[in-house]
Predict the structure.
Amino acid sequence: MNFLFGLIGAVLTWMLAAAWGWGWEMTLVVVGGVIGWLLGRNSKLATRVEVLERSMKSMAVGAQARAQPPSAATAPTPEFRLEAPSARAAQAATSTPVTTAAVPPIAEAARVEAVGVPVAPAVPAAPQPPAEPPLLARGFDAIRNWFSVGNVPVKVGMLVLFAGVAALLKYAADAGWFTLPIEFRMAGIALTAIAALLFGWHQRAKRTAFALSLQGGAVGILVLTVFAAFRLYGLLPAGAAFALLVLIVAATCVLAVRQNSLALAVLGILAGYLAPILISTGSGNHVALFSYYAVLNLAVFAVAWVRPWRALNLIGFVFTYAVATLWGVLSYQPENFSSTEPFLILFFVIYLLVPLLCARKREPSRRDIVDGSLLFGNPLIAFALQAGLLKGDPMGLALSALVLAVLYAALAWWLLRRTTLRVIGEAHAILAIGFATLSVPLALSAGATACTFALEGAGLVWLGLRQQRRFPRWSGYVLQALAGVAWVFGDIPEHAIPVVNGIAIGALLISLAGFASAELLRRASGRAFLVWLLNGWGLMWWLIAWLNEIDRFVPAYSQADAVLGLTAVSIAIAGFVFTRWQRPLHAWIAAAGFVIAIVIAMQQAQDHRQPFAEWGSLAWLAFAIGGALALRWIASSAAIVVAHNGWLWAWTLALALLLRWFAVDHGLAAGWAWALSALPMLALATLLHKKPSWIAWPIGHAFAHVLASLSALLLIVLLLVFGNSLFAAGSSAPLPFVPVVNPLELMQLGILLLIARGDGFAAFGEAVVAQRMRVLVVLGFAFVTFATLRGVHQLGGVPWDEALLWTTLAQTSLTVVWSLVGMAAWIVGSRRGNRSLWLAGAVLMGIVLLKLLLVDRNHLGNLYGIASFIAYGLLCTVIGYLAPAPAKTTTENAP
């Protein structure tokens, strides 16, 4: 009933919006439906409350009757006197001794038996928690406590002072007292900040936290004051502002080191690195910029000599290379090499030595801690910037890599001789090996570089797992990543043989190295996430290798066919790996391939009109063979649900696209195209209901796990197809259009029959199953409505557009058809004694009546409008005679 009220509300709102020209029709329909549902819900709740009240009253009457003592005429004469509970309570309250209170248990039992009513022992009531006072009362209590508890004079005084100061400030502002020259204001702020800085320094021993916070705030105010004086008001030239910022930064770093305050040092260094950005004039003088950053980095180096503050080092590292990279991308020219290279070398050397200084300052037992961000990030970023500076000079870049390899090898040799620095020495040795390896293929092709890096990376992973050492293993991962980078940025030769070329082989070797590393890690009981990641890396490069070849050597109109063939081979290989070595991930890879085949079928239809044209037939043959093998091999996997669904829907879609092409190619109208394209889906639904074994091939008994999901998907697709087809004009040319007996509406009726079976509803739970009939009612009503409008369009010659609904012929037709449907529901409900069906017909007739009054009355000036009213009146008369209201049953009366 709630659903019915919602439908009534939606329809009524739609009618009102259409009749009175309101906007936002769909929004109003939704709102009307919700309001109707709430009214139905409220009506149902009111009924339940009424029934509950009647039940409570009857229970109270029964309890009162049972509680009354028997009459004097029928009650037996008691042997002992039984006092009322109220009398006992009065005696206890007055401390008056009561004779019956001392009756022993046996006498008490006899007394109870004599009266005939059992007496329960007195149980003390549990103490009830005090009721919480109302919110308003709690607010008054809080205000009273504030004015009566604690230091009341201070509280009141602060309130009065606050009000007075606020009034004074307002008066001063109105009188213009604060209108001072901007120079005086800036100077006053700066002097106040300096005074705060000095006061904080003076309080460093007594109140350390307070002193450091005050100094940090003062430094921030000074930096902002200099920035405002330069940028906003033009009171300082760029040079003076820059010099002041340098002075502030230097003083802050000194204060931080003297007080051992990392926070203060970070604040000072941040201000220093931001100074060129704040004071920038847009001159683009990179020498001055990098000279200033060189001074700042030397300051970071000097602080690292005294304090091992990693955060300070990271800030300098990030700001320096970020600004350098940004400048290089936006402004670097080859003629700037000689003035830029020295700064890059200086920055590299500073952050090469900073981790060593920090390790030297640590305790001997903690010197093996490696600062990976600086140790590995510094050479990688510096080398990348060097590659940008040496663009077009691979031999120069190879020489740079060789120099780095020698430098890191020398540092490794020196560090490995010290026991406490052995881990850092091993890290330098790995970097030396990496740069030595990198220097060899820099002058070679991308394919050769990728092959070298990929194979060496897989070897290092094997060595690291064999020796149970992290550094070789992670170096192997990094080398494989570098192999991918080398492949991406390498040059692709214009003339090459398909597949047998360096680009394809390089990508395939990267893929093979990724799969091999994943398998090695899995056998060594490594982290599952990393195993999945490496397998994903291998799969990605497998696809890149073949998709790149397809893009280079296959014509555009046949590329989708080639991709389908690649998918068939890939899922067969993944299925074989699963059945041979029981790798669940490969079963899911195969399942993903089946889903991708659905997308490929749509691309084939776009490229050459239907999936089986050109090389499509051969591709689908390969998919049939590879897919059948893969399904058989992964039948025991959890991925079989996704895989078999993908298999069935891929073939269903391919056949649907083929039949649609057939209809269009042979000059059939759109109604035929809809009906023919829906045939494979209707056949799949019918087979699922009648002959499920026919679509269970090739997984056999494992199809039992697929049944529920396939039924649910079929229900969803059937609903989507039905909903979309409602808005089709449904031309049946070359055959004449006959209402209901035309291709489109026969297809819709077939969908309704399949939905009525209810196979898919069970997959969504009992709550959805209970709504099946209501869904069918809505779908049936929509079918009747749109079939009527479609008949008006096809037989009445009215254009199929938004204006169709508001034509006189359409409105009259809807009135008659809806009335016939309501009459049928009324009659069937009356004859079968089904009050719900009878009531649904009554509601529909009520909606038609409102439609007559609100919409059709505008058409009373023509025959169609008059026919609407007459037809409705006659039908109501016939219904009143044939279908009186059936009596309410017990079930329908139940709330």
